[in-house]
Specification:
The complex is a heterodimer. Chain A has 23 helices and two strands. Chain A is an all-alpha fold. Chain B has one domain. The two termini of chain B are 13 Å apart. A three-stranded mixed β-sheet of chain B has the order 1-4-5. The chains are: A mainly alpha, B mainly alpha. The interface between A and B is medium-sized, with 35 and 34 residues.
Chain lengths: 575, 565
């Protein structure tokens, strides 16, 4: 009787989720007819890449929410399968956009030009529009996000309470893509804050022992910083020259100003004060600092980095992967999109400052890594250290440095999820994060040991892996500007190699010959990677090698963007 | 501009919302008293049915009748105002006395405020049907239930008179009429605050609110008399002419200061706000919500009339009251926020946040006072933007602040909402209500894309626009020194909003992260009408934020009408 009824429930839920899947897949198939922009072109961004993941994950979570615990467990299977299928749709679309399969996209864009632009009126009184588009800066990030979400779902296939967990990852992906494709400050800010909510709940509900503290610290810290950024954005909004609403339909009826990033960049480019100057130098500096604070906290750079180790150590594996993989890059992306493009004079003024912050992040992060006993904390600090490299690329003010920073964002976006996946697998199989608690992994979990070695090598910058290209390019740009100061980042890279190799030596190799598994390797979990973990690792490793050997697949687009950016920004009248 | 005479046929048509209120008022008086009464004609045995009194009919004896009439009347008044305004059929109509003096004026401005007043009172009245419930009379009624049944009619009569008084304030063209309307509304709210007279908190709150309020009214009235002494009239346009010609006369300035006290109490500006937290905490939540929204809007009407329209700056100078009001607003918003940070009672917290919001509104008014500062080409346009922002902010407050109070009202129904911990675990007990509360809190903090952001943005925008003036176009902004100093009020407002995020977020943390209190683990009481009001507020909070263009345009044209643009 009871077996029968369980079966009934199971079948019913499967049928329901199946129906849902078919419905939404049908909707997805009809996207071209659903969304088209003012020019009558298909809007490949708004609904398929942004709206679809957020709405679908919301539906799936609502579907799972009002059930008892037992029913939730039953639902978890079909829902995570559905989530995986749905997360593959944006990946397919973004990949197809890259290879021109869907539509011929010209990625060779000039400065302040965007592919696949779509624009709709939203709040006409204050000049807010729904404006999306992609360029060589945002498209790699969008692809990275669409790629990481399914990988993360596969990697954490067996996470508990999966009926909510996996849809949250999907929602996170939608919000992140929203940040990257927004061409309107208002939209940008909303998506920027929206990314906090799924991540907050991921840390809060699936985190480790101190999850409450970590999630609140994460939320308040990043929220406070984005309020400072908001102050900058609003000031920027008001200081742009007013336009007549009757000639330009996109500016606000009441304010005569626009939240549109393209319009603002345009005005900055033509310089409303004559001689190509956009705002007085004092105001430029103020705005530059306000915006940079918001982005530096997100990055995070050293004085503002303290939320990151806590959040990472407590976050579940999937949360960490997306946090390190994409969320940190939001900070770097924001810098390129706004302050660097708007205020090149202020950048020149603060060049050494940014260089110093980057260098401190790099060196300090690496030193702190040396002393860590918690594996995940070490990896978290290594993220801080690598984000310093991006700042160095920016501070160099060389095209090659910018391109390198972009590629660093991309490469780190593939490598760091793998690092955190390895940490998560440790936790899963060894029930501990302490480096000292693991000995002789090569013997007890050979697969894990191999992937760990691979990820560690990729992160420390082994040639032919993705991280190497970026680091080399940054060092070249740095050398061109700062000469022998290059010894400092060089030293930091040496330390990076040291802490990675040392931690490997202590975990993989030592103590294996005693023939006794470590005391923590207990419980029901198998000692080595499960199938989903293996699949996820292989995918990540494959792309690490791919972009290490053929960096130009992504780098070409970034190079074009950088060249156009330098022509547009630094060849303005005044400079 | 049309004009009609008082009590002519046209008059009732123009004043349709007020007419409905009046009829509703009569209905609440009469209908519950209808019964089988008969009147015996003297010296005969003929009994004529008289209907007023006696054993009540089955329908009229139902204690929930006054609530239904009250809510329906307010809804009708609200809808008719909304429709007139939306269809653009309003126009401006002056209402003259038979002697040819302009008493009232129906225009965009008055309709916007009527929308605010009627909207708030309508939601409060609907919610009160659950908060002060009427139960069918039977022998086993508890004392509490019998109390509530007895005072149904009182409650809705008072709400209707409040609405009537407030709409008089919005319509008045004469400071004396304005004052009479203000007092009608005030006296009704004094009683409403003390409505739960069997509880200590209710009586105490009512007495405090009454004493402080009547002192403030007295001072305001004295100020009015000084103004009358100076100018010989209380007509708004007469006062404006008089003010413009008065030069440096001290008497009207003193009068103005005293009038400020009277209205300052209504908007709960800083030195006059001491009664507000006690009154809000002691009153039942829908009433407290009305105090924080409609009553505040009423005070703002007075301030706008007196400060902007009467005592507006002349020539190239700033307004006389500029520095005074600037300091007042800075103190009000900062004090409100700091006090809210430390209050553990959610109702007091909301009261202090309402003080802070009064500070934001005063900051906007200050910026209007700066409109002749020399770098502004068309001052009326700048002032219009700011006033539109003030109207919109007051409108938005109805949705968010009243909504938050109604959620507390729902908690009061199961035994009180005077500790922050009574909200604990709401996220698990009732996710929908908790989410609504979270939306209200975020909107109060001004997080985009909710309504609170939009209105604060417009207010800050107006202030900044005024302080920049035409400098942006002529390229004169080298440093902050070249801006008018009201710029700093905009910044202070932003910083205060940033601080306020902390205590609003704390409510969210308590609701979603803490375990519910002992004895509060069961689902919330159902209360369909209070829930409906909460959901209306939540939906309005989101819609006014992402699609509020219609209402912003409405506020804008109302503000334009005020300056005759």
């Amino acid at each position: 009787m009871s077996a029968n009824s369980t079966l009934d429930i199971k079948n019913k839920e499967f049928i329901l989720v199946g129906l849902l899947l078919v419905t939404v897949a049908g909707l997805a198939a009809f996207f071209p007819s659903l969304g088209s922009n003012a020019q009558g072109e298909v809007d490949w961004i708004s609904l398929p890449l942004v709206g679809f993941p957020i709405v679908v994950s919301g539906i799936l979570m609502a579907f799972a929410s009002q059930e008892s615990r037992a029913r939730k467990e039953i639902l978890a299977g079909p829902i995570r399968l559905a989530t995986l299928c749905f997360s593959l749709i944006p990946l397919a679309i973004s990949t197809a956009l890259f290879f021109d399969w869907l539509i011929a996209v010209d990625w060779a864009l000039g400065y302040n030009e965007y592919a696949l632009e779509s624009r709709y009126h939203w709040m006409e009184s204050i000049g807010v529009s729904w404006h999306v588009g992609m360029d060589g800066l945002s498209f790699p990030m969008v692809w990275l996000t669409t790629f990481l979400v399914p990988v993360t779902i596969i990697m954490t296939w067996e996470e508990k309470n999966g009926a909510v967990y996996h849809p949250l990852l999907l929602m996170m992906g939608g919000a992140l893509i929203g940040v990257f494709v927004s061409l309107d400050l208002f939209m940008f800010y909303i998506f920027w804050e929206l990314t906090l909510i799924p991540m907050f709940f991921l840390i809060l509900s699936w985190g480790g022992k101190d999850r409450r503290y970590a999630s609140q610290k994460f939320f308040i810290y990043t929220f406070a910083s984005s309020v400072i950024m908001l102050l900058g954005l609003i000031t920027l909004y008001f200081l742009q020259p007013a336009q007549d609403a009757s000639t330009n339909p996109w500016v606000g009826d009441l304010t005569g100003r626009s939240f549109d990033i393209v319009t603002i960049l345009d005005q900055a480019n033509h310089g409303n004060l004559g001689d190509g100057i956009f705002l007085g130098m004092g105001m430029q500096k103020v705005l530059f600092v306000l915006l940079m604070i918001g982005f530096l906290v997100k990055l995070p750079a050293v004085p503002f980095h303290t939320w990151l180790p806590d959040a990472h150590v407590q976050a579940p594996t999937g949360g960490s992967m997306l946090l390190a993989g994409v969320m940190l890059k939001m900070g770097a992306y924001g810098m390129f999109r706004l302050p660097l493009a708007l205020f090149p004079d202020a950048l020149m003024h603060y060049q050494h400052c940014i260089m110093a912050i980057g260098l401190i992040s790099l060196v300090w992060g690496a030193f702190v890594c040396l002393g860590q006993t918690n594996l995940k904390k070490m990896v978290a600090y290594s993220s801080v250290s690598h984000m310093g490299v991006i700042l160095l690329g920016i501070a160099s003010m060389q095209p090659i440095g910018y391109a390198a920073a972009l590629f660093m964002m991309f490469a780190h976006g593939i490598i760091s999820p793998m690092l955190f996946a390895v940490c998560g697998a440790f936790k899963h199989h060894y029930h501990s994060m302490e480096i000292g608690a693991m000995r002789g992994m090569a013997k007890f979990s050979p697969f894990l040991a191999v992937y760990m070695m691979f990820a560690w090598m990729a992160s420390l910058g082994l040639p032919l892996l993705a991280g190497f290209v970026a680091e080399l390019m940054v060092l070249l740009a740095y050398w061109a500007i700062y000469g022998w100061w290059i010894l400092l980042p060089g030293l930091a890279l040496a330390i990076t190699a040291t802490y990675y190799l040392w931690s490997m030596q202590r975990t993989i190799f030592e103590g294996g010959d005693e023939g006794q598994p470590p005391a923590t390797l207990l419980g029901e979990n198998p000692p080595d990677l499960t199938l989903p973990e293996n699949i996820g690792m292989i995918i990540l490793a494959f792309f690490t090698v791919l972009f290490g050997v053929f960096p130009f697949i992504a780098l070409g687009m970034m190079d074009d963007w950088t060249v156009a950016f330098f022509e547009g920004v630094f060849n303005r009248g005044g400079i | 501009m049309d004009s009609v005479t008082v009590f002519s046929l046209e008059f009732w048509k123009v004043m349709a919302p007020e007419t409905i209120l009046l009829l509703g008022l009569v209905a609440v008086f009469v209908i519950p008293n209808l019964g089988h009464a008969k009147f015996r004609i003297p010296l005969t045995k003929v009994r004529v049915p008289w209907f007023l009194g006696g054993r009540r009919f089955a329908i009229t004896g139902d204690p929930s009748i006054p609530g239904l009439i009250g809510a329906a009347t307010l809804t009708g008044a609200f809808l008719i105002t909304l429709m007139t305004e939306m269809m653009g059929e309003g126009g401006t109509t002056a209402i003259m006395s038979s002697g040819g003096i302009k008493l009232l004026q129906v225009d965009g401005f008055s309709r916007i405020f009527e929308l605010i007043f009627f909207g708030a009172l309508m939601l409060a009245a609907i919610a009160s049907m659950d908060r002060v419930p009427a139960t069918m009379q039977h022998s086993s009624n508890t004392l509490e239930e019998m109390y509530d049944n007895r005072r149904q009619a009182d409650l809705y009569i008072l709400m209707l008179t409040t609405a009537l008084g407030m709409s008089m304030v919005a319509l008045a063209q004469n400071l004396f009429i304005l004052f009479v309307g203000l007092e009608l509304a005030s006296f009704s709210t004094y009683i409403l605050v003390a409505f739960h007279k069997e509880s200590k908190a209710g009586a105490e709150a009512g007495v405090k609110y009454f004493i402080v309020g009547s002192v403030a009214s007295g001072v305001g009235l004295y100020g009015l008399s000084l103004l009358y002494l100076a100018f010989g009239t209380l007509q708004l346009d007469g006062l404006a002419t008089g003010w413009a010609n008065s030069g440096d006369a001290i008497l009207p300035v003193i009068g103005l200061g005293m009038v400020l006290v009277g209205f300052g109490f209504k908007v709960s500006a800083a030195p006059f706000h001491f009664a507000a937290p006690d009154a809000y905490a002691g009153a039942n939540s829908p009433i407290a919500g009305v105090l924080a929204t409609a009553s505040k809007a009423m005070g703002m009407v007075g301030l706008i009339r007196v400060l902007v329209l009467v005592a507006s700056p002349v020539g190239e100078t700033s307004a006389t009251w500029l520095c005074l009001l600037g300091v007042l607003s800075a103190v009000t918003m900062t004090w409100g926020n700091i006090a809210a940070l430390g209050s553990k009672n959610p109702k007091r917290m909301l009261a202090y946040s309402s003080v802070a919001h009064a500070g934001y509104l005063l900051a906007a008014l200050t910026a209007v006072g700066a409109w002749h500062w020399g770098h502004v080409d068309m001052p009326e346009h700048y002032a219009t933007a700011i006033l539109a922002a003030i109207f919109f902010h007051l409108m938005v407050l109805v949705a968010i602040k009243l909504g938050a109070f109604l959620v507390l009202g729902l908690l009061e129904m199961e035994g009180g909402a005077s500790r922050l911990s009574s909200l604990a675990g709401l996220g698990r007990r009732d996710p929908l209500i908790a989410t609504s509360m979270f939306i209200f809190m975020m909107a109060l903090a001004g997080v985009p894309p909710l309504a609170g952001f939009m209105s604060k943005f417009l207010v800050i925008g107006g202030i900044v626009k005024m302080s920049i003036g035409d400098l942006a176009a002529s390229g004169g902004i080298e440093s902050l020194d070249s801006l008018h100093w009201v710029w700093w009020l905009g910044l202070l407002m932003f910083l205060n909003s940033a601080v306020s995020v902390f205590y609003y977020l704390r409510v969210g943390v308590v609701m979603f992260l803490d375990a519910p209190e002992e004895g509060r683990r069961k689902p919330l009481p159902y209360g369909i009408s209070i829930r409906m009001s909460i959901w209306i507020c939540a939906v309005a909070t989101i819609l006014l934020g992402v699609a509020g263009d219609t209402f912003i345009e409405m506020c804008y044209s109302a503000a334009e009408g005020l300056f005759g643009l």
